[in-house]
Amino acid sequence: MWIPRDIEPRLQRSAKTRPAVVLTGARQTGKTSTFRRLFPNHAFVSLDLPTEAEQAEKEPGRFLQRHPPPVLIDEVQYAPGLFRHLKVAVDANRTRNGQFLLTGSQKFTLMKNVSESLAGRADIVELETLSFAEIREALPKTGIETAIVRGGFPELYANREIDSAAFYNSYLATYLERDVRALTHVGSLRDFERFLRACALRSANLLNKADLARDVGIAPSTANQWLSMLEASGQAVLLEPWFSNRTKSIVKSPKLYIADTGLLCALLNIRSEEALRQSPAVGAVWETFVFAQLRARERRAGRTGSLFFWRDRTREVDFVVDAGGRLELFEAKWTELPDAGDTVNLEFVRNVAGKSRVSSSAVVCRTPNSFPFQNGFRAIPVTELE
Q1: Has residue 105 got a pLDDT over 90?
Q2: What rounded mean pLDDT belongs to the chain?
Q3: Are residues 36 and 114 both part of a single domain?
Q4: Within 10 A of 329 (CB to CB), how many other CB atoms are there?
């Protein structure tokens, strides 16, 4: 079963207008499958194969002779030496678009090589796990709680017989053994796994690197390095605060989120919908889920750098969308029936930012249908973020 991705039209446009297209994202998000489905006439080579990766790195000229364009090169980060030769190949026929389709699971490493060698020649696109909108489009009967616990990895919906607990156990083992070892020198994979689980416990919370390092028993510099690794491999996302010059006591630390709620639930040992409902972490998991849907919405709108949170010493609004100076404010609440008390911080921040700047404010909750509060705010289901 193929689940269409919202990003497909953009990839097709990019291949028509740019010589190279780079698709990044965490492992198992469907990068290779999406490219191969959209561009079946491209040749394919994977640098997951050590022999191919070695030749691409040590003999890039011969490698490109063996695999001339149009070609899809999978896991291209394993051969950083290839990028300079890709630049030469692109420049030799600059008017020919869609020559090279590249995928990579290590975002920051890949971006460095792209920026140095393919600047102005490549469109860079990130593919994340399935949004709830994509899941519902393919499988309309999928409930919210199922989607939260099962997560957004396409394979789990293409084949519903896959046991999600076994999938995430395997995913974590593969991630630790391959990406972690490839990205940096980690002395103990067991320590890193503890660090990853400690990050899961802090999803939807302000990031305090010193506390995180102390709880895991590692140096702050190591915690900083490992956190960058989680970002690089698409497993964690940092959300920055929105600043207003009217508030001098604003918090400047980012918030930490695990990118996919299925992985988050696996790390928290939440294996069922009932376990989710009973978990003391359910509020943080729900906020993480809403964050993922807002990220997906902003990507569909073609906006980058538009999503923030607001917090001062006493109050917080979970999400602020800044679209050209116009603001949307959102609070994430697990409840099915929020009340006006859940809008207190929304009203405070709306007054601080200026009512004329705020286009909408809402509590995103599990209500099946949206409804208004008497103070003008609304309660909305997560589906209204589509």
Answers
A1: no
A2: 92
A3: yes
A4: 25
Q: In this structure, which long-range contacts are made by residues 94-99, counting pairs with CB atoms below 8 Å and at least 24 apart in sequence?
A: 94/19, 94/121, 96/19, 96/69, 97/15, 97/16, 97/17, 97/18, 97/19, 98/15, 98/16, 98/18, 98/19, 98/21, 98/39, 98/70, 99/19, 99/20, 99/69, 99/70, 99/71
Final residue in a domain of this structure, among 80, 95, 126: 126
Q: Are residues 117 and 157 in the same domain?
A: no
- Structural domain including 98 reads 8-126
pLDDT bracket for residue 130 (50, 70, 90) = very high
Task: Please spell the DSSP secondary structure of 179-223, one letter per residue.
Answer: IIHHHS--S-HHHHHHHHHHHHHTTTEE--HHHHHHHHT--HHHH
pTM of the predicted structure, to 2 decimals: 0.93
Q: Is residue 247 part of a domain?
A: no
Higher pLDDT among residues 297 and 189, named by residue:
297
Q: pLDDT (tens digit, 9 = 90+) per residue, 151-166?
A: 999 999 999 999 999 9
Q: Can you tell me the distance from the alpha carbon of 309 to that of 307, in angstroms, rounded to the nearest whole number?
A: 7
Question: 323 and 232 in one domain?
Answer: no
Condensed to tens digits (0 to 9), the pLDDT of residues 314-332 reads: 899 999 999 988 999 999 9
* Residue 244 covered by a domain: no
CATH of the domain at 59: 3.40.50.300
Q: What is the DSSP pairing of strand 255-258 with strand 205-206?
A: antiparallel
The Cα–Cα gap between 277 and 290 comes to 16
pLDDT at 372 over 90: yes
The answer to whether residue 314 sits within a structural domain is yes
Which 3 state secondary structure label does DSSP give 295? Answer: helix
